[in-house]
Design a protein that fits this description.
Blueprint lengths: L1 H8 L3 H6 L3 E2 L4 E3 L2 E3 L21 E2 L2 H14 L12 E4 L4 E5 L2 E5 L2 E3 L6 H6 L3 E4 L4 E9 L8 E4 L3 E6 L2 E6 L13 H12 L5 E11 L2 E4 L3 E2 L2 E3 L5 E2 L7 H21 L6 H27 L3 H14 L2 H12 L38 E5 L17 E5 L10 E4 L5 E5 L5 H12 L7 H18 L8
Parallel strand pairs: 8-17, 19-20
Antiparallel strand pairs: 1-4, 2-3, 5-6, 6-7, 9-15, 10-13, 10-14, 11-12, 12-13, 15-18, 16-17, 19-21, 21-22
């Protein structure tokens, strides 16, 4: 759901659905244990509103990449493929990237080049974690004797396998010995499947195969000088639970607007440092989330006993809600300070009476102030940030008791109030995330002064003299 929200906030969700993405019928799974979406209690997330991005999506990587590439090209981005990075120099005020005979200069370099990242290695990032326990295979196959394999997912004494018509998945607890070390041949995959399933299954054809392990590592920092990491370059883990794409797009949404502000020269001095502070804990959580699934998949009676307990918990309403909150990203919250429970969370997709939604106002990548109280026009406070923050006025169909909220370009709530607030607090938050104010017209300045006086009277009522 977090990925669907990100695409929705950049105007890409409808295009992805039109290109073949489908609404997922399940909430996801944990170590192969399906989470029933019908048992999820959405009332547990009072900050979340139903909307176009409310249902998890199922889409192949090729479709998603095609949509992202099309958007990049439409924005004037030049994409060079087949150009391998061979060296880099961080000069303090710029980075020089060497790609064979080509030399490129940029103010910042972002390594998004996968789990075996060349950028991460050349820039000297420390990459710490744990070694793998298994090699997993996912393959499209023809089976000569499919009746010998039980359909569905099955744990065995050496791993587990899953069989569906034309597709198999196998986890072989070999310490990750085979992953990408040799090509996956029909003969090798058949040997592994026979050993794990304890059958004489015969593969008559292998059409496509991929492997992965449960190696779990995370960069000790995502920012080192002028070089930053995102996606698998910053964190690697098993594909269990399908969280890799979610984490990578989450990194991109968090970093993109901050890096753009730094390039424009409007970013506060420590803005890029908040990328590491906010996203590295998510990467660390993801490693632990996948490690816990590996523990349930290990061969042997102890893991089967734990699996039974988890399966029973996941089948309850509370259990399904907890798992879905983690899998969908709804439970995620950045520690941004501030007393309002919405601060640090993904903003509710408020629906205005004209039919528009908050997500549509985030398409252009600016911050958004949602002003729901005509009596106290908070938009006047934001006038000096008009080039970076868009003001949108209510009313909305379900305000959830809110009077106003300031949303970062990545859709995270930076400030919110349910009632009388202090204008100075909003200004401080705007400065923290969007940099210094650039000024306002004289009319706007007068309106801001009146608003300041009004909010101060509300926030600091006069007291009778003490006798």
């Amino acid at each position: 759901m977090a990925t669907a929200e990100a695409l929705h906030r950049r105007g890409l969700l409808d295009a992805l659905l039109a290109a073949g993405a489908v609404r997922a019928p399940q909430a996801g799974h944990f170590a192969g244990i399906a989470i029933d979406a019908t048992k999820v209690d959405r009332r547990a997330w009072p900050h979340h509103l139903p909307g176009p991005a409310d249902t998890p999506l199922a889409a192949d990587m090729a479709t998603i990449e095609a949509q992202l590439a099309a958007r990049a090209l439409a924005l004037g981005v030049e994409i060079r493929r087949g150009v391998a990075v061979t060296g880099l120099d961080d000069l303090g005020d710029e980075v020089v990237v060497h790609a064979g005979d080509v030399e490129l200069r940029a103010r910042w370099l972002v390594g998004c080049d996968g789990g075996r990242s060349t950028v991460r290695r050349l820039a000297g990032f420390e990459f710490v974690g744990t070694e793998p326990e298994f090699t997993a295979y996912s393959a499209l196959v023809d089976i000569a004797n499919p009746e010998v394999l039980q359909p569905g997912r099955h744990a065995t004494s050496t791993g587990f396998y899953m069989s569906q018509p034309g597709r198999i998945a196998v986890a072989d607890f070999d310490g990750g010995a085979y992953d990408r070390s040799l090509p996956v041949t029909r003969e090798h995959l058949q040997s592994v499947l026979r050993r794990v399933s304890a059958t004489d299954v015969t593969l008559s054809a292998l059409h496509l195969a991929t492997t992965f392990t449960d190696r779990a590592r995370v960069a000790s920092t995502y920012v080192r000088g002028r070089v930053l990491l995102a996606g698998d370059a910053a964190h690697v883990h098993s594909a269990l639970g399908g969280q890799g794409l979610n984490a990578g797009l989450g990194d991109a949404m968090n970093l993109g607007w901050k890096l753009a502000a730094a390039v424009r020269g409007t970013a506060p001095s420590d803005l890029l440092e908040t990328y590491d502070a906010e996203r590295r804990p998510v990467g660390q959580w993801l490693l632990d989330w996948t490690r816990a699934q590996v523990a349930l998949m290990r061969p042997g009676a102890p893991a089967r006993a734990i699996e039974g307990v988890v399966r029973d918990l996941a089948d309850t309403r509370d259990g399904a809600t907890v798992f879905a909150g983690q899998l969908w990203g709804v439970a995620q919250r950045y520690d941004l300070g501030g007393g309002h429970p919405l601060v640090g969370r993904s903003a509710p997709d408020l629906e205005f009476e004209d039919g528009s939604r908050l997500a549509a106002h985030l398409h252009e990548g600016r911050g958004v102030l949602v002003d729901l109280d005509a009596a106290r026009p908070w938009r006047h406070v934001m006038a000096p940030w008009g080039d970076r923050i868009r003001s949108v006025t209510g009313p909305v169909r379900d305000a959830r008791g809110l009077e106003a909220l300031l949303v970062r370009p990545d859709g995270v709530v930076a400030w919110a109030t349910d009632g009388p607030g202090v204008a100075g607090e909003l200004e401080a938050v705007a400065t923290q995330w969007f940099g210094a104010a650039t000024g306002a017209t004289s009319q706007e300045s007068r309106a801001r002064k009146r608003f300041h006086a009004y909010t101060c009277r509300i926030a600091r009522p006069s007291r009778p003299a003490v006798r």
